[in-house]
Amino acid sequence: MVSPKSVDKILLGIVLTLVAGGFFIFSSASLGLLVDGNVRFTSVAFNQIVLGIGGGMVAMFIMSRIYYRTWRRFAFYIFLLGVLGAFLVFVPGLGLEHGGARRWIDVAGFSFQPAEFLKIAFVIYVATWFSAIRKGTNNFWQSTAPFIASVFVVGVVMLLQKDTDTFLIMVAAGTSMFFVQSGKWREILIMGLVMIALVGSLAFVHDYVKNRLLAFVNSDYDPQGAGYQVKQSLIAVGSGGVWGRGFGQSVQKFEYLPEPIGDSIFAVYAEEFGFVGAFILILLFSGFVFRGYRLATHAPDDFGMLLVVGLVTMIVLQAFLHIAAMVKFAPMLGLPLPFISHGGTAMLMTLAAVGIILNVSKYQKRMIK
């Protein structure tokens, strides 16, 4: 085993910059809640600052100190715990429903989204399985079949929760690990076609999926429903211009943008900081993905490499899909912006995932610049 070094300071610096900047972005976006009498600003702020940022920083520190190979020993049980936890949302009196979806559980007045834990558990489990087989193996039952089975399991629970967005992020993270370990373009192409067919079939089963796809294709579709958020986000981004209106000066966050502290937070940020600010934020996320993948190439073993690839893909893909949806480069998925959007559970688990990545960086085969 390689002797542990200090964590990668460049990746840590990028994350701390995103969290610190995200706090100010969230603070400004949350002012839009003051006109909403159904939301308590103090409750939202407490959840974000104490549970999300405070708890997340503690989780990141703890995870960065736990030897990453420890997760491999308990991968199956962690995955099983994640699946069972995700099913708890269907327990009467425990699960919470919002907007027609059941994605939260309530314990002693605190809400928690178990799917956020399941995302990390899934990555750990898939990384464990792939690292245990010979790289580039052509045995379908050793590589592809177990991956499909694990995707099926998380797909059942996620689709029952009507959380298609999180499911697609998990599949993408798993596919990135599958490609790194097997390098089989043919099977990845087949899985991609299957996913497209699955999303298409979901559009016939769930109206919310169909409406989002139609609003993406046709800007004038359902202007007071599915198409409303698209139009309002484009207005916000466009009105920001080059330099933006200025910090705290967003107009769209007041009763125009749905979920200004969550699904629409990039639109608020772009309105206040303009093209320049949006470009800087995209650069930070790009730096995160490039540094993360570079760390993966210097991981001491396949498990560490796959773990980093899966977690980095999961975080960054969610960020770029959120941004793309705000400028109509992707359908409106309802994904929060990592490190920035409101969501104590999401922030806590994202920073915990970063802690795992940082621990792998302590054992890199050689120092990188």
Q: How many domain regions?
A: 1
Compute the number of helices: 13
Q: Globular, elongated, flat, extended or rod-shaped: what is the shape?
A: globular
The chain-level mean pLDDT equals 85
Biggest sheet statistics: 3 strands, antiparallel
Structural class of the secondary structure composition? Answer: mainly alpha
Helical proportion, percent range = 55-70%
The oligomeric state is: single chain
Low-confidence stretches: none
Task: Summarize it.
With 369 residues, this protein is mainly alpha-helical.
Key descriptive features of the protein:
single chain; 369 residues; 3 strands
Would you mind describing this structure in some detail?
The protein has helices spanning 9-29, 41-65, 70-73, 75-87, 114-131, 144-160, 164-182, 185-205, 207-217, 226-239, 265-297, 302-326, 344-361; strands at 95-98, 101-107, 110-112. The protein has 369 residues and is mainly alpha-helical. It contains 13 helices and three strands; from the N terminus they run H-H-H-H-E-E-E-H-H-H-H-H-H-H-H-H. The chain is globular, with a radius of gyration of 20 Å. The protein has a three-stranded antiparallel sheet, with no helix packed on it. The longest helix has 33 residues, at 265-297. The protein starts with 8 loop residues before the first helix and ends in an 8-residue tail after the last helix. 65% of the residues lie in helices and 4% in strands. The protein has one domain (9-361).
